[in-house]
Backbone:
RNA sequence: GGGUCUGUAGCUCAGUUGGUUAGAGCGCACGAUUCACAUUCGUGAGGUCAGAGGUUCAACUCCUCUCAGGCCCACCA
């Protein structure tokens, strides 16, 4: 044991430990040595997307590893299931960009099959990188159950889900206005668009008797309806009227409709509507039966509806139309200083074009989901499961945000015009191509089924074409908790591990993902997907900024792990934050925990090299000294506190508590005391079972947070009951329960007070370190610990002090000073006395106040009284000291 | 516009059912250091807990308002 390195070197340890863990099979609940009836505990890893390698955001998975390791040590049948998400739009974009950069080819040049082949190769590559990264972080994932959202089994489940939902009328095809990205050539969900402030000319046109304003003249060519507010008196006379007017492409006729959608305060109070390219206008058009026609096509150019202007880009058309209107004298005003929010694609930043197209939707309002025996809509179930407490969201303030979002939920557009992803299981008959077939009207009906149909069920044609679109990524990830466990088969895993216990993820995907999982899972399984949703914050830099490439403030988790060790990184991520709050991470913080890990290493090293045989001590040894009883009491209190905090998901605080105990109590005091006392207690000198007992408990308590170093040290002990720390029994209060006299604890505390006071005097009065001072007076509660005080305070106990004395505390005095200027001390003492007297007056007043004594609980009154007593005692000391100093 | 979070020592943050003369780490200053650890040890200086009211015997903690920042949602012709 003497060859242990002075400094902990994580590099040499982590890989070995990782390999040993994996070889053990303990990450897999099937090969975990636990009783058959052990309680199950499961978490499904929020699947990282395969677009890139892991960043610090993913390192937050460490919270899940802590939960999992904790549960495993509590003897539960523990499963943490890994997987990755194909992230259709992001991945396809990425690969398309790579192909374009390298070969100047578009996806259409490659064709569907070739593009998919390229994507698959890219994905295989990034999957293996991600896997290695996850392993490097020490995550105890069961890799034997790894899933990918495009696995054949998952695909079948997704298609079955689609068909089931379609059968139940929850999925329908409809023409609706959608966000269209002309660059990605796909629809975007409401939450896949972003807004960017943009300065743009704001045009005012003369439209018959009205003045209308717009930033998008190119869409206005077909407008034939004016909306005014019903209560706007200026326009009452026009309600329901039609009128002719000169417009972009010749004269047209327009009509006026009164509707509250128009805001009289805004502009002229009159607006024309463009049904196909504005969400508000689309709703109005449906309400009043106005013809809905796309002016702009999916390629971002004007359609045939624009007549001779068809084919112009929106920019060209804008310029052209303004010119035309100007010539006709219809431009009233152009406001150049107008800013508005431009809608852009969250992936590529291209301006989104709202347009109308046929898409597949999930109906969130149709009451066809049976939940607890009642038919409800997806929306209602999603609200109910949280209201009823079937799902708990931590921190609970997010429940409010959740409700608000669900309540405003519209039907969910699930079709995407992408090639990468789950193909929509729908076929259309194109059957009139074979001889003799008579394609009836019904053939236009889509055939919805999981397998490729052999022939059209209406006309018998064998010429069927599958819907070219794929499903929104969130459709498949919404099913993640149960498809990964084998659904729709009634597997043992599904029975054992579903619902999962916790979903731990960032609050930024509460809507994207969490809400969708709740919708999909309750419908498919009749169960909630998870009992608890734990939301963590985002990882930011020291200034609280998001980490991004452009800011250059990105911290790579693997760099940090290589530089400071994975345990240090894990600790830095888990502390200084509470659930739902963002965590600021910076290198100094990680370095701080590297120092701690090294401290831990040296504590272990000290204990291991002190004892004759470093063995595992299971039961609490006899406690021989006051210090023994004190440290065990502290260990007990720490264990209890940590357990309590972990039950409440307060991991940051639990770490802090452990940290205090380990460094401040154990290392700074107890080990130092042990150096003094152990050699005296001869029988235990070489054994130090208590040190080993404490070490054993610490290893367990720290293991979920710092798994590598703890496992490494555990492996150095002889006679440990389990072959690995990761399956050791979690310490509970009984482990450290003691029946010792509290006097022991108080004695040590008093000793610490005295030593601290002496140290302070030494430092404050600049007494040379080599000077040995004399201590005299009654030891009070610290009686019997004189030897420790002498050792730590570097003092000599004397009965009769020589020369000048200085009152210290608790009636003790210091003497033996040489060449000390007491003026500083005098001034300080006076100041302290003054403060103290104010404090005492306050306390006395409080205690004399009848309202206080009659209202406050007894223990508080007792506490205040004790404070007063202590303060009064202290005043006596200080007065005494002043007398001596003058 | 609607919602929500944050504002505590120079910096980053704790402080969970209201009861300490308000805490930690880092940084800073001073002092130590062959004996587990300089990735160390000891000591110290720093805060009217954003501001103003209110409830209470008692408020960093609860309520109202104001100020300053962040985020989410909705987006207007």
Residues:
């Amino acid at each position: 044991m003497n060859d242990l390195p002075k400094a902990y070197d994580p590099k040499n340890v982590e890989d070995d430990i990782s390999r040993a863990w994996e070889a053990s099979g303990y990450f897999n609940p099937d090969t975990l040595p636990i009783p058959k009836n052990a309680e199950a505990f499961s978490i499904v890893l929020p699947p990282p997307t395969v677009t890139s390698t892991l960043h610090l955001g993913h390192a937050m998975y460490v919270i899940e590893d802590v939960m999992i390791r904790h549960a495993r040590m509590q003897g539960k049948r523990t499963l943490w299931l890994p997987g990755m998400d194909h992230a259709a739009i992001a991945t396809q974009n990425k690969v398309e960009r790579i192909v374009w950069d390298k070969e100047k080819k578009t996806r259409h040049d490659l064709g569907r099959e070739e593009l998919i082949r390229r994507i698959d190769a890219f994905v295989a590559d990034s999957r293996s990188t991600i896997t290695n990264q996850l392993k490097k972080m020490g995550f105890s994932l069961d890799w034997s159950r790894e899933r990918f959202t495009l696995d054949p089994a998952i695909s079948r489940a997704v298609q079955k889900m689609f068909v089931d939902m379609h059968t139940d009328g929850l999925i329908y095809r409809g023409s609706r206005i959608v966000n269209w990205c002309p660059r990605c050539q796909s629809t975007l969900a409401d939450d896949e668009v972003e807004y960017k402030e943009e300065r743009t000319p704001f045009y005012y046109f003369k439209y018959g008797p009205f003045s209308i304003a717009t930033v998008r003249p190119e869409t206005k060519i077909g407008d034939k309806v004016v909306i005014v507010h019903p209560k706007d008196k200026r326009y009452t006379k026009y309600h329901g009227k039609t009128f002719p007017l000169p417009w972009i492409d010749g004269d047209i006729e327009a009509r006026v409709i009164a509707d509250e959608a128009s805001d009289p305060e805004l502009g002229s109070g009159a607006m024309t509507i463009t049904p196909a390219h504005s969400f508000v206008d689309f709703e109005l058009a449906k309400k009043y039966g106005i013809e809905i026609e796309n002016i702009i096509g999916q390629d971002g150019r004007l359609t045939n509806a624009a007549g001779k202007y068809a084919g112009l880009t929106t920019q060209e058309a804008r310029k052209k139309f303004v010119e035309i209107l100007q010539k006709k004298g219809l431009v009233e005003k152009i406001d150049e200083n107008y800013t508005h929010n431009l809608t852009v694609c969250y992936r590529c930043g291209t301006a989104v074009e709202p347009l109308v197209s046929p898409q597949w939707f999930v109906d969130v309002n149709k009451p066809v989901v049976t939940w607890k025996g009642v038919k409800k809509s997806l929306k209602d179930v999603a609200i109910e499961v949280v209201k009823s407490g079937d799902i708990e969201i931590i921190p609970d303030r997010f429940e409010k945000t959740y409700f608000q979002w669900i309540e405003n939920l519209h039907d969910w557009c699930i079709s995407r015009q992408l090639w990468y992803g789950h193909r929509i299981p729908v076929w259309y008959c194109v059957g009139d191509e074979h001889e003799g077939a008579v394609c009836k009207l019904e053939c236009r009906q889509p055939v919805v089924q999981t397998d490729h149909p052999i022939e059209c069920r209406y006309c018998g044609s064998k010429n069927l074409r599958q819907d070219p679109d794929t499903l929104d990524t969130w459709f498949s990830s919404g099913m993640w908790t149960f498809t990964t466990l084998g659904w729709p088969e009634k597997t043992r895993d599904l029975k054992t591990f579903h619902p999962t216990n916790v979903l731990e993820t960032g609050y930024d995907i509460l809507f994207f993902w969490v809400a969708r999982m709740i919708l999909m899972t309750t419908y498919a399984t009749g169960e909630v997907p998870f009992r608890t949703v734990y939301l963590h914050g985002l990882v930011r830099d020291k200034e609280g900024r998001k980490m991004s490439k452009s800011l250059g403030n990105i911290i790579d988790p693997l760099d940090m792990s290589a530089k400071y060790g994975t345990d240090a990184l894990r600790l830095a991520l888990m502390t200084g934050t509470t659930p739902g709050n963002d965590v600021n991470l910076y290198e100094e913080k990680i370095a701080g925990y590297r120092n701690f890990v090294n401290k831990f290493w040296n504590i272990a090293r000290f204990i291991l090299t002190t004892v004759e045989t470093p063995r595992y001590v299971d039961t609490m040894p006899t406690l021989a000294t006051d210090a023994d009883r004190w440290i065990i009491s502290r260990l007990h209190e720490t264990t209890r506190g940590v357990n309590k905090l972990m039950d409440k998901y307060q991991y940051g605080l639990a770490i802090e508590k452990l940290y205090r105990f380990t460094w401040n109590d154990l290392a700074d005091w107890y080990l130092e005391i042990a150096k003094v006392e152990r050699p005296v207690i001869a029988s235990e000198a070489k054994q130090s079972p208590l040190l080993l007992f404490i070490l054993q408990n610490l290893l367990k308590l720290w293991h979920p947070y710092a798994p590598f170093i703890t496992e490494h040290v555990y492996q150095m002990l002889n006679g440990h009951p389990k072959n690995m720390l990761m399956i050791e029994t979690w310490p509970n209060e009984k482990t450290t329960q003691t029946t010792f006299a509290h006097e022991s604890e108080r004695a040590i505390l008093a000793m610490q007070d005295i030593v601290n006071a002496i140290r302070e005097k030494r430092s404050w009065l600049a007494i040379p370190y080599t000077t040995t001072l004399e201590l005299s007076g009654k030891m009070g509660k610290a009686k019997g610990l004189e030897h420790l005080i002498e050792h730590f305070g570097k003092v000599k106990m004397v009965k009769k002090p020589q020369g000048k004395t200085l009152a210290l505390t608790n009636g003790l005095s210091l003497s033996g000073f040489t060449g000390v200027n007491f003026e500083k001390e005098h001034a300080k003492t006076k100041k302290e006395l003054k403060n103290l007297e104010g404090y005492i007056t306050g306390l006395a007043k409080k205690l004399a106040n009848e309202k206080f004594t009659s209202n406050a609980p007894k223990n508080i009154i007792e506490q205040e009284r004790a404070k007063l007593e202590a303060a009064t005692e202290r005043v006596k000391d200080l007065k005494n000291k002043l007398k001596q100093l003058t």
About this structure: Chain A has a mean pLDDT of 89. Chain A is about 40% helix and 15% strand. The CA atoms of residues 7 and 598 of chain A lie 6 Å apart.
